[in-house]
Each structure stands twice: as C-alpha cells, then as structure tokens.
Amino acid sequence: MPVRRLVRWLIALGVTAAGFVVVLWIAGAWGGLDRATALSVALAAAPLLAGPFAWWASQPIEVKPRRTSATGAGGPVKPGAVFVCYSQTDGREYAQRLVENLAEAGIPAWMDREIVSGQRWTRTIEEQLDACSAVVVVMTPAASKSEWVGREILHARAAGKEILPLLRSGRPFFSLADVHYEDVTTGSLPGPQFLSRLADLAGIAPPAPPQDAPPPDTPRGPRFTVRWRYVAAALAVVVLAIGIRAIVVYSAGRQQSNAGAAPHPAYPYARPGVVVSPDGQWLYVTVNYHLASGDNPGWRGAVVAVDAQTRVASDPFWFVAGAGHGIVSPDGKQMYVAVDNYGVVNIFQLGANPMGIGGFELPAPTASADTHRRMAISDDGRRLYVADPGASAIWPADPHEDAVGKAITLHDAPQDMVMSPDGTRLYVAVRTGYVVTIDTATGKTLNDYVGVGDDPRAIATSRDGTRLYVANHGSDTISTIDPRRGTVIRQFRPACGTKPIAVAAGRLTNHVYVACENADTVTAADGATGAALGPPIKVGERPSSLALSPDGTRLYVVTLGATTVDIAIVDTSTNTLVVPPFAVATWYGR
Prior knowledge:
Keywords: Membrane, Transmembrane, Transmembrane helix. This is 40-residue YVTN family beta-propeller repeat-containing protein. By secondary structure, the chain is an alpha+beta fold. About 25% of the residues lie in helices and about 30% in strands. It has nine helices and 36 strands. Strands 2-1-3-4-5 form a five-stranded parallel sheet, sandwiched between helices. The radius of gyration is 29 Å and the shape is globular. Mean pLDDT is about 80; it is low at about 65-75, about 210-225 and about 245-270.
C-alpha cells in the first residue's frame, strides 16, 4: 500500500508540473507577458492545478484481486493445460472469454489464437491435444461443420482425453451425444461444478467459491480528513514552486512549435506496411506493436484485414516477433510476412480474419534491426524472394513446398525490390545507393549496377516495365531509371518535401506517388517529367507505406500516429484526400 500511495503522489506531482509549464507557456507565448509576469500567473494557478490531484492522491486505495492473463495462445506446448476447441468463425470471442475465465480460476488453458513463427500448425495442435488434461468443445453451428473441430474431437477421443462440451449456439453435436453438456447459449460462462471438474482433471486445487462482500459498517481503514487534504495540496504547491523554476528556465528558451521534432525512438522499427488483395476488397496491414512495459516488453507482429469499402478492421492476428514486409499471393488466398530478426516467413490464410497456417525458415538468416525484410513474388506464385539485409543477400523460395534455394549474394544490404512485369528481372535497391538487376531464370546478378541517390528505401516499376522509380531517403530525391539501358534518365526532388520513404507507380497512368515521412504528405508527379501534379496532400503523421487499388483509382497511405496505425485514402483522378486517416490498429502501448 505505501508503494501505491507513493506512485499516486508522484503522478499527481508530475501532472501538476506539466500543467504548470503549459500555463507558463500560454501566458508567455499567447498572452505576450514577460517571463516574470508569466511566472507569477503560473504560480497563482498552481493551487488550482495541484488541489484536485492532491485530493485524488490522498484517497483510500481499494485493492482489487489481480487478474491473471489468459494462458496459452498458440505458444509452445503446455502440458496439463485444458485444450479449448472452437470455430474461428463464430466461437472465437467466447473461447477467448473462456480462456480468461479459466486463467482467473487458476486453470491453465490453451487455444489456437496465435501461431509461433515457423511452427507447423497441424503438429502444434496434435502435440497440445496429446499433452492436455481435458478438452472443452465450444459447440456452435460453424464448429459442427468445421473439419478441424471434427479432427480435434476424434484425436482427443483416440488419446483418451475427457471431453466437456459447452453449447454456445445451435444444436448439440451428434458426435458428442453420449457426453453431458452445459448450456451457455445465453453467453454465460460455465458454472462452479464445471470449473471444479476441470481443476480436478488438471490436478490443481478447485477454485475458491466467491466470498460475500463485507457489511456496510466494516472498517475500511484510516481516511484522510478534509483538513489533511488541504495540507497535502499546500505541500504539493510548495514543492512545485521550488522545483518548477528549473523547468521554467529550461523551457523559456525553447521554440513554441513541435514541428520537426524527433520521432519516437521506436518509430524506425515500427513502420507498418500495406498490401491490397487482387480483387481490391481487402487491405492487409502489417503492424509492429511495441509493448513498452509489462511482463514481456518488446516487439510483436500482427496482420490486420481492413474492408476497403466499409473501412472496418479485423482483430489483429498476433505472432511472436516484429512484422516485416508482407506480400499477397497472386491468387489472393495467402499472404507471406517476413519476420524481422528471426529469419522466418509466416504464411497466412486471407479473408475477413487472417489466420496463420504455417511458415518456413531461411537457412542462415542474419539479424538486422534497422531494415525490414522486403519481398517480391512471381506472377505464378511459385517463386518468392526474401531480402536478408544483415547478410547482404536475397533468398529465393518456393512457398508451396517451403523450400528455400541458394542465397543470391549482393555487395550491400537490400532495402527494397520489385519484379519486372514479365517476371524475368528482379530489381533490388541496396543501401550504398545502387540498383542491382538479377536474372530470375539463373539467379545471378547482372552487371547493371545503376547508381542512384543516398540510402534508397523504396523502388517501383511502371505498368509497362520501361521505367523504375527509386525513393532516395538520404538525398531527398527520386531517381527515374530506364532498365533496358541501365541508366538514370532523370532525378528530381518530390514536392512532398524531405525523406521520401515510399513510392508507387500508377496502374493506368504514368503518375508516380511519393510519401515523405518528414512532411507528413504524399505528392503525385508526372512520371515522364517529374513535375508535380498539384500541391502536396496531407495524409497524417509519418506516412510509411503506399498501395494502389487494382483499378488504380485509389491510393492507400499507411501512417503512424502517436499510438495508432492509420490509413488515409487519396483519389488518384483528382489527387485529393477523400478519406482522412482512420485508425486500424495500435502500435505502441504500456
């Protein structure tokens, strides 16, 4: 309790100090007061700022029982855990609630909500069924038709596992007609007898029955009187008056605008990506979530599906590492996501709710924290190219067979790549400022090393393959290349500003679209001349990725806000913003 009280007082002092600085800034910048007068105004406002927070800090703290997080979610096999069998279509939400409820009761549970990078889905399910203490089946209409649910029930019976069904909706399963089930069609969680049976099977003590609340006259401990609250508020003001002076002196000479402020230190690694399904119905966003604190701080990756018409986003499908570049198979059924620092490519089944179905590992990957692993895919979907920046190489792979070929070695780190429309050439932008051409038939690099600008981050090809456009992040330019001659024919500065981070080439026009992360804008340029086609388009904070709809009429821009990943939509016929940024996921939290 003393620690929590101390934390409350520290929060109160911190918030009050921030408010004090804001009042001081407003009085000086907007009110036109000199420093001494502005300081007097801020000190006069200090009691108003400190009073409410001092009162809050002095309140009794009610200690609530700690909630245990849900155990298991597709991670390593957990011996003795309860296996939750359900359908992703209509039982996922209830299954998640059930796992959390079991965790609160101290009963370990496992559900296939996530997939560990590189783990084979079928093998993981089988091993967890063999190791579980019991199987809970969430019976729903979709589950009754699910081949996976049927397999899991058959395997559980063959392994001699006790099955405890829960009827969530629809009718009881014919295959479980000989087993008593509990009715939870109202959405309720299973009762004490059900939990006790699971606890007994798991070999743990049954959950304690809920205790009645204490009577109204039960003593709750000492409370601060009104007098002491005001004394505490006065003490807070005195402390602030002594300590804030240093903050004021430091802040007085700072600029009044935050323009050009350095981005969050986690931002370079957090850049999300976006790809569009071949039919244009779905946008698939790769998200890197940074958990700043907690039991497992660090990065996690996720894939989010966004309906291009309704702009409704699915729940993220998480996996245990940062997400790199994503690319959709030509038939639109699967998505491949390269996992940074792990040398793994995860495979997802696409739709309204993307689901991991497997993956494969690169033979000898090298970690590279500052550059995402980019990818390219052939039109027939049989050849996938994965960049390995740390090893200055590219790995060719057959995603259908999970087979990885011999690495194609480059002279420096590959930062982006694109396939020629006819599939015979792979163009790679490398960190030292060159574009390298690879013959896809032989896997050999050609002598077409074309010098561009500093730190090329993105590359795109025109619809007919006669032009390449390279975004040079370090030199603030766009290079236009004639790949047949292997020469730069034009270099121009985009109207969007500095630090071009992404580039896209029009599907039905010769327009080029460039995103500049330092200016929070996107610009359209004439691919033949480099001339701007109108003023820069404001799209939101730190644009990081561009994707065009299949018909070329919409440009989707993924931006990175303070804590959210957003998408803005541009009409390419008018080069205007038609949908302001809307959030599709969270990327930073505590």
